[in-house]
Amino acid sequence: MKANVHIYSVGYNINSQPYLSKLAKVLSCYTDKITFHCWRRKNTPSSSEHKGVKTRVLLNYGNDGSKYVALVYPIWMFLVFIDCLFKRKSGDVVICSKFESGFPVALLCHFKKIKFIYLDRDNLAFSYRGHPIVKSIALKLESFVARQAILHLVPGENRVYEQRDNIRVIHNTPHSETLAEAEKKINKWQHLRSDNKLNVYINGWMSERRGIDFILNTIEKCENMKLPIHFIVAGSGDDRVINRLELFKSVSYIGCVSNADALAIYYVMDLLLSFYDPVYEIHQRAEPNKWYDALFTSTNVIVNNDIKASEIFIDNYGFTGVKYGDVLGLINCFMDYQKDKDESKMTSYDDFICWDKRVHSVLKDIL
Questions:
Q1: Are residues 158 and 281 in the same domain?
Q2: Which of 145, 238, 244, 365 shows the greatest Cβ crowding within 10 Å of its Cβ?
Q3: Does residue 235 contact residue 45 with C-beta atoms inside 8 Å?
Q4: Is 62 within 8 Å of 75 (Cβ atoms)?
């Protein structure tokens, strides 16, 4: 009998979220009864149907990037709790992305025999700066959620904060089908490349905590210096960021694209930028999709070298490190890459396998 699978997550378009898009592909191999229950915000990407997945809006309110949106999280958690309490049946597989979806379901595990899988993509306790007592409480709450799950999936060894039998490390590598699809789409994006310039790729959620102001200041400096650099930007951000990007002559902003298209663009780029504000502990432990996407597409990467997680990628896989916020240091890196931009500095990624192969090995006995 095919399992009923229910995914709960903030964000309307499952295809614009690489992690959930990859997960949906794996789940569809086992069942066609998949529902994505989501929180839609006004400025999030439009929905794009994913084969075999039904999208259901559980909450439709707020704007991404708004300082008031945090006040709505208790409402989201309450709606998830009520939805699971009255609509989920014994034996249903309930997959929750992050704490805000996982906590209400963890509470229900004492009353309902559901198969709860926790996607621990961002540790709440490590994501914000606050009093040690607040952090301690957050850790205890996250530990409670993780203990209720039959599987607790984390994206890297750096994110394991206590040892339990239900923990599985799933590195953020590409899905094999998405990788194959991306290779077929390379020609679609070839027009973005400027052969007489250094082609620099920026993608994903563009926020202050992910270095967007550092990047914007660098682009402005490069234009003032009249450097032959072309910046290609894919992803979303608040109006301030998008408006400033569109003012630059050296920037091609293409908006939000599918996971496969975002991956295909790597193949026509010379370089990827990926920065995380080191003051946040969660960033010290970050191992994002884009690092592994770059590895699998042999795309050079510049990261900030003042986060712990980047050390292994700089030491073992050919990433280049620069201090967070160091505009001139980043420009010097551009100059170095400009000299031999047709050569990849990346090394073998044999230490990693495609995401779906690892996840299949974890889920096959549950679904």
A1: no
A2: 145
A3: no
A4: no
